[in-house]
Amino acid sequence: MIGGDDLPGGYHDRGPAPGDVDLDRVWLGVAAQVWRRRPGPAERAAGRLLRSPGLARALVTTPSLLLGWVIATVVILIAGIGFTLSTGTPWVALLAPAVAAAGIAYAYGPGIDPAWELSQSMAVSDRMVLLVRALAVFGLNAALGLAASAASGAAAAVTFGWLVPMTAVCALALAAATVTRSPNVGVAAGSAGWVIAILASQAAEGRFTAAITDSFFVLPYLAFAVCCAAVVWYATRIPRGTS
Amino acid sequence: MDDDALIAAVARRDDTALRELFSRHAPWLAARLRGVLPAAEVEDVLQETFLAVWRGAASYRPQGSAGGWLWGIARRQAALWLRRRGPAELLLPALLAADGRHPGDPAEAALSRAELARAVSALGPEGGPAREIWRLMYVEDKSVAEVAELLGVPAGTVKSRAHRARRLMRAALRHHEPVREGGGR
Amino acid sequence: MNVELTELTRRFGRTQAVTAVNLEAGPGVFGLLGPNGAGKTSLLRMMATVLPPTSGTLRLLGRDPGGYGPRREIRRRLGYLPQNLGYYPGFTVVDFVEYFALLKDMPPGQVPRAVATAIEQVGLGDKARAKLRTLSGGMLRRAGIAQAIVNQPELLLLDEPTAGLDPEQRVAFRALLREFGQRATVIVSTHLVEDVAAACTEVTLMDSGRIVFHGTPGELIARGQGHGVGDAPLERGYSAVLAAARS
Questions:
Q1: Which of A18, A79, A228, C138 could link A175 by a cystine bridge, Cβ 3.0 to 4.6 Å?
Q2: Distance from CA of C235 to the nearest CA of A (A)
């Protein structure tokens, strides 16, 4: 640690430190203040709300809540608004679930967290982190999507109708990402699942917005979401690996 | 890297430069402070000194006298500390020496302490000019020039304030009215 | 006793990674030796509450990690360095150590000083604000050690901690282990036999999921007298015990 043993020439003659002064301790006090990170207002508020500074810190470091990601989401939704207004098809409602699924797949999990094994030994459990991050990403995407949907002048049924399918699609993406330890697989699974749902409803009822608006699907969507959540729960219980 | 370059680096928020500066200068700064303060306080003051260096490195003008600049900061921090925490007991030895008495008898010492506390309060509020002068010149035993530099006032002002402080103390201790000027140190 | 393992077993499908391990450890530095596949990492993972046992009992710091509350309490007092530790490349060393300090429920007021202490203890003081992506393998390993010790753990589990460290750094690291071993239980899994000799008060040798030796380094050396293969006395003891266990 810090010492005065190998100082350049001229400083020796000013005298060594007195024996009863602990310079290492002094340096630690200085370093603690110089190196410390001061959390921003969002993190402090989250810490009070969640009653855990660790959980708040994990939340603000979510990959898919970083500024770049959020901006990309907004851009996609604005494009959706544009397409909706020009073509009359509710593109926002069709895009929002897929975008959210991507966000969820990149929120947390073995594929995205390089220190995954270490995270599993933490007092703030990785499941809590997963839950909080997933809810935050979902909530943000839902809010942005609702705003975009309303801005594109869509009917109320369409504006809110895609929240349930979005839940199902996000759950699918998260389950796939967690089980395969790859966020890309999660995104692919979520997007593919959504595309299939849209195409199937097009085939069944002649319009693909049925996937969003038809209340027949609400229960199946929610049941599916619950199953996927159970898969995630199980997958985060037992880590893989031998010896 | 020489000291001037290090301090310039610290001004650019380079913490490794601060670490190097600490490594070089903390030992002798600690030794000098130890002459004035007890060991535990030296640690606190030294910590505050280097934090002040971290915050104020931008104001250093390279003149090759980094040591002097550092000591200036350390001394200011020490003075701040003394102002906040200096206990009344520190004044007793200085006062008794000035009056030719010696604290041999515990009862006498206890009486003196009580008298002293009363007399000190007669100098005015803590942090006021008379109290400060008293502490710096008679407790810390600084020269007029040093005190003038520390407080940022001319030497003449220091002398006249010291004179007034002595007058007030003497009067309070002897329970008399203020004596006309004429008594010297 | 900080660690009490009784007939601890861990199976993965058909494979028995750890079989009927009995171990007790109070404060001190304990070496865990053995060839690859011996079950050292699985054992360490069970003690780190990352892997649940298949059977047997496990008591850590006087608590049963089966329940959520006790497990959380154990984890607050635990330090763990896995064999493969990934890093967040954009984080600095301070960010990294502080992140895990917070996740270990350390009171935020204590965190800055604890982080500074841990970073200086592993000799990364001049790299504190460097981004992890700019560090060498040995420095990254030391950053990993720093996060393990930041909360002054009572149970410190290190899996191959000296990988990538040069000899001088290994000496400093062993001194750190001895210091921690005075108050805490430190368990070091390593295949570097000389690490064990220098720092550990007791050695456990595992092979194929079982404990084949438990005792002091001196006793292990004694087992190698005139029998084993190796350049150093401890290596000879190591190979002698393994040969005996497999025959």
A1: A228
A2: 23
Q: A33 contacts in B (CB within 8 Å)?
A: 51, 54
Q: What is the pTM of this model?
A: 0.78
User: Pick from B136, B163, B140: which is nearest to B151 by CA?
Assistant: B136
- The DSSP-derived string for C60-123 is ETTB-TTSHHHHHHHHHTEEEE-SS----TTSBHHHHHHHHHHHTT--GGGHHHHHHHHHHHTT
B10-41 pLDDT per residue, tens = 999 999 999 999 999 999 999 888 877 778 88
Please judge whether A34 and B18 are an interchain contact, meaning their C-beta atoms are less than 8 angstroms apart: yes
**ipTM of the shown complex:** 0.89
Contact residues, chain B, for A16 at CB < 8 Å: 27-28, 31
Estimate to the nearest angstrom the gap between the alpha carbon of A55 and the chain centroid.
13
Question: What residue has token string 């967290």?
Answer: A113
Q: Are C215 and C230 in contact (CB under 8 A)?
A: no
- DSSP labels for C130-189? SBGGGS-HHHHHHHHHHHHHTT--SEEEEESTTTT--HHHHHHHHHHHHHHHTTSEEEEE
Burial class (CB in 10 A: 0-12, 13-18, 19+), C136: exposed
**Minimal Cα distance from B16: which residue of C?**
C126
Is A114's CB within 8 Å of C87's CB? yes
Tens digit of each residue's pLDDT (9 = 90 or more) over A172-221: 888 888 888 888 888 898 889 888 888 887 777 776 666 666 677 778 88
CA distances from A56 to A48, A132, A191, B55, C115 (A): 8, 9, 29, 29, 18
Distance, CA of A175 to CA of A225 (rounded, Å): 10
Identify all chain C residues contacting A24, using CB atoms and an 8 Å cutoff: 120
The alpha-carbon gap from A30 to the nearest alpha carbon of chain B, in Å, equals 6
Q: Name chain C contacts of B16, Cβ cutoff 8 Å.
A: 126
Whether chain C has a CB inside 8 Å of the CB on B19: the answer is yes
Task: Tell me: pLDDT of A7 over 60.
Answer: no
pLDDT at B23: 93
C129 — contact with chain B (CB < 8 Å)? Answer: yes
| Residue found under tokens 């603690």 | A32
* Interchain proximity B30–A34, CB inside 8 Å: no
Tell me: pLDDT of B156 over 80: yes
Closest CA of chain C from A38, distance in Å:
10
Q: pLDDT by residue (tens digit) across B89-130?
A: 454 444 444 444 454 555 455 556 666 777 777 788 877 888
